[in-house]
Amino acid sequence: MKTLTRLKGPVLGALLGALAALPIASMASSSAPAAFPEPGKMVKVIVPFVAGGGVDSAARLFAEQLRKQLGTTVIVENRVGGSGVVGGRAVLAAAPDGYTLLFSAATHVLAKQVLAHPPYDPQTDFVPVARVGEAPLMLVISPQLPHSKLGEVLAAGAKSTWTAAIPAVGAPSHLATLLLAQQGRMRLEYVPYKGTQPALVDVGGGHVDLLLDSMVSVLPLAKAGKVRPIAITSGKRSPLAPEVPTMQESGLPRFAYTSWYGLWAPKDTPADRVQRLNQASNAAVAELARSGAFASLGIDTVSESTEQFKRFIAADVAQSAALLKGAGFKPE
Fold it and tell me: Superkingdom of this entry's organism (predicted)?
C-alpha cells in the first residue's frame, strides 16, 4: 500500500480502476455460455418410427447435413412404439442440454388430441427447434371403381357412403381425409389400419374405396396401376407425379394439406443452444434443397425461426382438433 500512496494523479486512478475491474472481468468470463456443441460431444437425433420408413429416411438425410453444420458427430437412433410416444418419452427424459433431439412428423403434436392418456403435452413439454420440410398427400381409389377425376369421386361420395382407409389415427392421412369429407361433402365410413401398406393392399383389391396418404408411400402402386391416383393435397403439382392434379385444380379451391417434419428439444433447453440448433437446421435444409435430396422423397424444404415454428404448431393443432371434434372422434 505504501507504493500505491506514492502514486498520484492519473497514474493512481488508472491503476485502481484496473484492479477494480479484475473481479468483474473474471466473473463475466466464468458466466459466458460454453461453446455448443462442445468438442467431442455427440448429438443424438431420436426418430420414433421404424428404420427405413419415410420419417426415418428424412431424418437420416437431415442428420448428415446437421453434422456438417455443427461440426460434430450426429447419430440417428430409432425408438419405436406407441405411435411415436416411446421416442417422445426418451427425449423428454433426456438432459435439456441440446444433445438429444426428436425428429418426428406432424403426428407428434397431436398426442393430447388422439390419446386418452397422453404421457406429455407436445406444446409445453418440448421446445420447437425447426420445421424442416413438408410433403403432399395423394388421394388414390380402387382401380375397380369407374371414376378418374375428383369431381366424379365427390359426386359419388355425396350420393352413397364410401369407405376410407385410415392408416394411423391422428396422422396427416387421417386429418386430410376428415378435411376431404368436410369440404367435399362426402359420406365416408372410416376403416382403421395399422400402417399404409395393408391399407393400400385393400384399396388395390377393392375392399376399401379410397386412401389419402403420403404421396411417396402410395406413388409406386399408383404408377404400377394397382391403385388409381386422383389428386394431391399441396398447392402445386409435384415433380414426382406432374400428371396428377391438385385438389385445388380439381374442384376444391380451399383444400390445402401437407404432412410435415420437425425437430424438437426437451423443455428447459437453453435458449442460446436452441437458436444455434435452429440456425444449423436451416443451413442443413438449404443444402438439402440445393442437392435435391429431400425432393427425391417428395419433400419441400422449409426454413423458419423457432417462433414461426411455434406459431405453426399452434395453428396446426387448432385445425386438427376442430376436424377431430367435428367428426365425433374419441381419444383412444
Answer: Bacteria
